[in-house]
């Protein structure tokens, strides 16, 4: 994606998240499943496997992602683009909880910070700042 689209996605995600309470209540009934995931750590293949086995988020398929979306793996940016897009499309069915890897100091240590300069030399710092703001 062009940096402009990533920045737009981040802006809309931040706007949406600011409207939410600090604590999310997710309920289910016997006819509806909730898939709970955690610790993707930049492993896009793991996210694809989860979606393959459980289906994509939809009005009948809720997901809770318990943080640690980034760092360690090489595809953290792609994971966030996918998760933020699903969050905006299905705001009642997709829930994102921040993990300790969605922190600036942890990002510096484990690699998320460095992805942006290979992604966009011109807009890398701006995109990184916006991600930190969303986190």
TrEMBL record:
Q: Look up the EC number in the record and give it.
A: 3.1.3.16
On whether Disulfide bond is a keyword of this UniProt record, the answer is no
**Segments traversing the membrane:** none
> Do you know which Pfam families this protein is assigned to?
Metallophos
Q: Which GO terms describe its biological process?
A: negative regulation of MAPK cascade
Recorded catalytic reaction(s): these are: O-phospho-L-threonyl-[protein] + H2O = L-threonyl-[protein] + phosphate
User: Mind telling me what this protein is named?
Assistant: Serine/threonine-protein phosphatase
Write down the species. Answer: Motacilla alba
Lineage, opening ranks: Eukaryota, Metazoa, Chordata, Craniata, Vertebrata
Q: Which gene encodes it?
A: Ppef2
């Amino acid at each position: 994606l062009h940096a402009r689209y990533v920045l737009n996605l981040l802006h809309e995600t931040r706007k949406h998240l600011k409207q939410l309470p600090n604590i999310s209540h997710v309920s289910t009934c016997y006819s509806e499943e909730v898939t709970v995931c955690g610790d993707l750590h930049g492993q896009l293949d793991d996210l694809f496997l989860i979606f393959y086995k459980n289906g994509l988020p939809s009005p009948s398929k809720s997901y809770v992602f318990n943080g640690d979306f980034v760092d360690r793996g090489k595809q953290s940016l792609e994971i966030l683009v996918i998760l933020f897009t699903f969050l905006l499309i299905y705001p009642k069915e997709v829930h994102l909880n921040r993990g300790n890897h969605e922190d600036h100091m942890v990002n510096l240590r484990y690699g998320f910070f460095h992805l942006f300069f290979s992604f966009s030399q011109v807009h890398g710092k701006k995109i990184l700042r916006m991600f930190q703001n969303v986190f």
